């Protein structure tokens, strides 16, 4: 059996506040090969905190612990700061939810992609420029030369998200964490971004963690799915079998999905059981 690219066992993320300790992620365990793993759940279920913890991006007063947290045999908990800096953005990248909060407003798109590339690769300015332009073309950006010279406020949400994907993939990472990369986009642009991600993951043989609240999207795009509730994984199953879920929380989420065929009244709601959070 091929060794997993990422191994996570009993991951916990706690925030120590004046009012007490909040456990945002509670005992999450999974492994990831060179595949597409979806993590779904409501807002506040711990999806994004799981992705950030893997990259070591949990802000203070957050505290991350795990029985095992390794990437390609490297223990992410005991690795030096230098090793983590090399991995982060180099072999592991993360696409954030909204590009307008992630892109630097005072640098052009091209400058930011070049900076990301040269931070991990020894390359001249000319080589880095060529790589950045090639990456903008790879994410299906029209007129890459023009976009290269634009500032973030001069591009649309869809173009900004593609620029973010180009920046995160320019170093040819082995693992990409995509935190709701299509939530700020309209349906047409969203599908285009997903096609780009699908092509790049397939061509490069990367592992992908796709964080989303859109169950229909995840069921059609990913290979496996983790369903999170209150910081825990309540169910893990093949994406194609999402409609055959056994846990009542997953079943409830599926029933709440709107359909165009049936006019359901009253609209279904999710009845929560306190035991799900235990």
TrEMBL record:
Sorted alphabetically, the keyword list is: ATP-binding, Cell membrane, Membrane, Nucleotide-binding, Transport
Q: Which GO terms describe its biological process?
A: transmembrane transport
Q: What transmembrane ranges does the database entry give?
A: none
ABC transporter domain span: 6-255
The UniProt GO MF terms for this protein read: ATP binding; ATP hydrolysis activity
- To which protein family does this belong? Belongs to the ABC transporter superfamily.
The protein's name is Peptide/nickel transport system ATP-binding protein
> To which species is this protein native?
Microvirga guangxiensis
Per the UniProt record, the lineage of the source organism begins with:
Bacteria, Pseudomonadati, Pseudomonadota, Alphaproteobacteria, Hyphomicrobiales
